[in-house]
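This follows on from our talk about sequence and fold. Please put the record directly below this note.
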Amino acid sequence: MSGLSRTSEDLSPRRRKTLYHAWHRGTRELDLLLGRFADAAIGDLTEEELDEFEALLEVDDRELFGWILGKAPIPHSAPKGVLAKVLAFAQTHPIAG
């Protein structure tokens, strides 16, 4: 997969921006994971989940990747609702087959 695969025509400007940001974080692995998650879920996230997803996109790549791989503890302040959805997505949609 080389990038954004979902059309954003039906999304609000905020959701379009968040979708774009999910695909353009910095590290390719997180771009693929978060971008594909956003492709699948961005239209269905509640406003609260969208807030959490935007906050998750601001987490440092190394720290976030540590949480996803289970190599670093997830802090109490982390946006856990949407993070749980991202982690479940990662389990069912692995980056490498």
In short: Residues 8 and 17 are 9 Å apart (CA to CA). The mean pLDDT is 89. The two ends are 12 Å apart (CA to CA). The first helix runs from residue 13 to 23.
